[in-house]
Design brief:
single chain; alpha+beta; four-stranded antiparallel sheet; elongated
Length: 213
């Protein structure tokens, strides 16, 4: 998708596009786009690749709040631009990323001059906020085993999950040691086995049943 096509899909008219500045961003994997206390200067749209927005708790635990993929924007960036606040989390590229950056003044100009763009921004903000609420509920429930099994079933490809214990812990919002204990528990029951590449599901039917119990 071309830059103009992407901007148009977000509700921006050609007239507005011609009056704003858009900077291309080319980022390598593991690049930090923003970090806590950084001032937000641009509205960022991901053209390709994946960005993870991560928070480090007071206990030093890393939690993935959400990911930003192709054609998506960052809810934290939107909130920071609308309220002129700083970031409170990290934005880290998980792959090579191509993105577009619209400076703050041009972002506000586009909001003021395009109802369709405003609707896109608010709709995207609402969707991401809903996913954050689900994450908060998941963490607050402390139902780690349920979240762990759900992660395995969702991310399995031919019964294989190529993820480390640390990355799983970060994704489901718990500590590495907790995931290791749950993994050992399911391994003892013959539902999983560990391999060099990650984890293999040995009995998906029983694993599904454990999710429902």
């Amino acid at each position: 998708m071309t830059q103009t096509a992407l901007l148009t899909s977000m509700g921006l008219s050609q007239e507005v596009i011609e009056q704003i500045t858009v900077h291309p961003m080319r980022l390598d994997k593991s690049s930090t786009i923003f970090k806590p206390f950084d001032a937000c200067q641009d509205y960022i749209i991901v053209e390709s690749g994946t960005v993870a927005v991560e928070l480090t708790s007071r206990k030093g635990r890393d939690i993935t709040l959400y990911t930003v993929n192709q054609g998506e924007t960052c809810v934290m960036t939107t909130a920071a631009l609308l309220n002129q606040q700083s970031y409170y989390a990290y934005g880290v590229t998980k792959t090579k990323v191509n993105a577009l950056a619209i400076p703050m003044k041009d972002f506000h100009f586009a909001l003021a001059n395009s109802q369709r763009f405003t609707r896109f921004v608010l709709d995207d903000f609402a969707k991401k906020t809903a996913s954050l609420c689900l994450l908060i509920d998941r963490i607050a429930s402390h139902d780690v085993l349920y979240n762990f099994i759900q992660f395995l079933l969702t991310n399995a490809s031919d019964g294989k999950i190529t993820a480390t214990v640390s990355s799983i812990a970060k994704d489901i919002g718990t500590a590495r040691e907790v995931v290791s204990r749950k993994l050992s528990l399911l391994e003892e029951q013959g539902l999983l086995t560990r391999h060099d590449y990650g984890i293999r599901i040995e009995d998906e039917v029983k694993l599904q049943q454990a999710l429902r119990d």
